[in-house]
Design goal:
The complex is a heterodimer of chains A (512) and B (163).
Chain A: H1 2-14, H2 17-35, H3 41-52, H4 57-82, H5 90-102, H6 106-139, H7 144-160, H8 166-179, E1 183-184, E2 191-192, H9 206-228, H10 244-266, H11 271-286, H12 298-314, H13 316-321, H14 328-339, H15 348-351, H16 353-374, H17 378-386, H18 389-408, H19 411-429, H20 434-457, H21 464-467, H22 469-511
Antiparallel strand pairs in A: 1-2
Helix pairs in contact in A: 1-16, 2-3, 2-4, 2-16, 3-4, 3-9, 3-14, 3-18, 4-5, 4-6, 4-12, 4-14, 4-16, 5-6, 5-11, 5-12, 6-10, 6-12, 6-16, 7-8, 7-20, 7-22, 8-20, 9-18, 9-19, 9-20, 10-11, 10-12, 11-12, 14-20, 18-19
Chain B: H1 2-17, H2 24-45, H3 57-76, H4 89-108, H5 111-123, H6 131-152
Classes of the chains: A mainly alpha (512), B mainly alpha (163).
Chain lengths: 512, 163
């Protein structure tokens, strides 16, 4: 009952005209940016962040969240119509979605996506409302050593599964931790690694890191696609609604996808792509239509989409109750909260109930808005996809410049974005993923503070990490993940190397 | 056999990396250099005592961890799995130049002409857009920025600066 009352209160918060408006702006801009191929939800959030600094924390958080799930949503629209996923998670939706589109049933695919996203989002929201209060209560008993262990687990879990392999992922996390120390040390007041540049005294702003790594980097990586050019599939509106049979076949996959997604999304370091992929793989085994998977079936579109969207929402659970983000977009949420002077963590629920429950309720409102934006108004996005990317990307670059400059009205920040963007792009070429770096960058100062507190409390004895049951368990899990990730990435490395050699040999023999 | 494999690795790299034979070693070396900077810097800032960790303790420890990791990366990358995608150097240069142009121009000649030039520079790698098209795009984006950021959001930009 308590939860229902709190949720009702949150609904009242989000229904205030101001919050409602920013919720709408968030999901609208999110969908807009998500639809653009190659620009993911990370870049979307980074671009919106400078605007949110002019708002109160609650509408700002509601808007950032809206951009996040709106972008995931728009990503699937692009993936169905172009077969170019707007976001990585949408590539799973594209498997069945683009097949349906090729059969001339793009409308049905888009409709199923919309319904499944809505269903998944609602499931995710219910899970947050039910789980967060008890998790926050548990976290209240955490000592600094336990916090340190949670942060470490989150960082390792998020980086060990990165594309370039565990070693590079963890190296990027550590680099992020290191870069996070630039600026004034809050405990001692000493400036560190500023090289005498006064602009670096307050550290590097998170918007600059995010814009450089994701905004600039993703634009450079997607220009080539703009040059080759690609036209969107046309949507036949007469065939928009699924048949009665397909309509019925949607229900169970949405529930299953939503359940898998909300579980996976709440774990640290997993994210929507893994949620969507797992749910799709599971559905492929249990669905009555499993034989037709891969040829364009409605449940095959619904499942990853429901999982994706529910994972997007439950990612907020560790972020808000523990203050430990499981994924890079959540790291930005934490960064934004800290800019407002709000420390995310177990006390957030009791100290900022309006904000927390307002956010949870905004998921309901935002998902309804998305349903309206994407079913009756789908034509807007289809038309948007027809606008060639060559007009879009110079505009995006200008928006990045304006956003970064307006942080401090200082050109220095533009130069810094340029450096981070170029270095980030080159590192990405070498398979060093930017996402773990951002996570480490945000969590570095917190981790250092918890480490200092722990050592002070234990009078300099590091064994405290192994003596406390919570931190010992978490550290053991971290060690397991490292061992497993190193083992499996060594294995895939050997396999891909072998298969590349084999395919090369094949090509060579074909040429002969 | 081993020689044959090494000789055969050149086309395999080309297949992946668009002609660049080297891979993550460069990244590993960059990270190693960075880690040394933070270790030395952390040492100079002072490591403190176990009970009271100094200002330099965290940078020093993270630097040390990164140094070890980057050595392992260099070892693992000797086999090399090439680049993740074919690098788009033209795109990289154009976007970098666009940011440079924005940084130089926005305070000196004002937002509207600054954005105009930024758009032109950013769109240079796209040959399908004629110069008139690029100029038109530049004018539209510059005017839109003026309207939205200066008139509506009241951000402290100057639309034009008379030199």
């Amino acid at each position: 009952m308590d939860i229902l009352a709190s949720f009702g209160n949150g609904l009242l918060v989000v229904l205030q005209p101001e919050n409602l408006m920013y919720c709408f702006i968030g999901v609208f801009l999110g969908t807009f940016i998500g639809v653009l191929p190659g620009i993911g939800s990370m870049a979307a959030i980074a671009m919106i962040l400078p605007i949110t600094f002019y708002l109160d924390p609650t509408p700002a958080l509601v808007m950032i969240a809206g951009v996040f799930y709106g972008a995931e949503y728009g990503g699937s629209t692009a993936s169905i119509l172009l077969n170019v996923p707007g976001t990585p998670a949408a590539s799973i939706t594209a498997i069945e979605g683009h097949q349906l589109a090729k059969k001339g049933r793009a409308g049905v695919a888009l409709f199923s996506t919309a319904t499944a996203s809505f269903g998944g989002g609602i499931i995710g929201m219910i899970v947050i409302a039910l789980l967060s209060p008890s998790l926050a209560n548990l976290a209240l008993s955490f000592a600094p050593a336990d916090y340190f262990a949670v942060i470490l687990l989150g960082l390792i879990a998020a980086s060990a599964v990165s594309n370039g392999g565990a070693l590079k992922g963890i190296a990027m996390v550590v680099t992020g931790l290191m870069l996070g120390t630039i600026g004034i040390d809050l405990t001692t007041g000493v400036t560190r690694f500023t090289m005498g540049i006064p602009e670096l005294r307050d550290g590097v702003h998170i918007v600059i890191v995010a814009m450089g790594l994701f905004g600039v980097g993703e634009v450079i990586a997607s220009i080539r696609g703009a040059r080759s050019g690609q036209a969107a599939q046309t949507v036949d509106y007469t065939d928009f609604y699924p048949s009665k049979k397909e309509w019925k076949s949607l229900f169970a996959p949405i529930l299953r996808g939503g359940a898998i997604g909300s579980f996976v999304g709440a774990l640290p370091g997993t994210g929507q792509t893994i949620a969507a992929a797992l749910a799709y793989a599971a559905e492929k085994r249990v669905s009555p239509q499993r034989k037709d998977f891969g040829t364009g079936v409605v449940p095959g579109v619904a499942v990853p989409e429901a999982a994706n969207n529910s994972a997007t929402q439950t990612a907020f659970i560790p972020t808000l109750t523990l203050g430990v983000p499981g994924s890079p977009p959540m790291a930005i949420v934490i960064g934004a909260l800290m800019i407002y002077g709000i420390t995310p963590g177990p006390r957030l629920l009791t100290e900022q109930p309006d904000m927390f429950w307002g956010l949870v309720a905004s998921f309901l409102v935002g998902n309804i808005m998305l349903l309206i934006l994407n079913v009756p108004l789908i034509g807007i996005w289809v038309r948007l996809l027809r606008i060639p990317y060559k007009y879009m990307y110079p505009t995006i670059i200008v928006l990045i410049c304006m956003g970064v400059y307006s942080l401090n009205n200082n050109v220095f920040d533009v130069w810094l974005t340029l450096i981070i963007g170029v270095v980030g792009y080159v590192m990405r070429l070498f398979r060093f993923e930017p996402a773990p770096l951002l996570l480490g960058f945000v969590l570095g100062p917190m981790m250092e503070e918890q480490l200092r507190r722990t050592m002070l409390l234990s009078r300099g004895d590091p064994m405290v990490f192994l003596e406390r049951p919570i931190s010992a368990t978490l550290l053991a899990m971290t060690a397991l993940i490292i061992v497993f990730a190193l083992y499996s990435s060594a294995k895939t490395r050997r396999r891909t190397l072998a298969s590349t050699l084999a395919s090369n040999r094949k090509e060579q023999s074909n040429e002969q | 056999m081993k020689n044959g494999r090494e000789a055969g690795s050149a086309p395999s790299d080309e297949h992946h990396a668009g002609g660049l034979g080297w891979g993550g070693e460069i990244g590993g070396i960059i990270l190693f250099a960075l880690s040394v900077v933070f270790m030395v810097g952390g040492w100079q800032l002072g490591l403190g005592a176990p009970t009271r960790l100094g200002t330099g303790a965290f940078p020093f420890v993270t630097g040390a961890v990164l140094a070890v990791l980057s050595v392992f990366i260099c070892i693992a990358e000797r086999k090399g799995d090439g680049l993740a995608e074919t690098p788009d150097w033209i795109g990289l240069v154009a976007i970098a130049a666009a940011l440079v142009v924005f940084a130089i121009s926005v305070e000196r000649i004002g937002l509207v002409p600054g954005v105009f030039v930024t758009v032109i520079v950013a769109s240079l790698p796209d040959r399908s857009l004629s110069f008139v098209g690029k100029a038109l795009l530049g004018i539209i984006v510059a005017l839109a920025c003026w309207g939205i950021f200066i008139e509506v959001l009241n951000l402290p930009f100057k639309p034009f600066v008379v030199i």
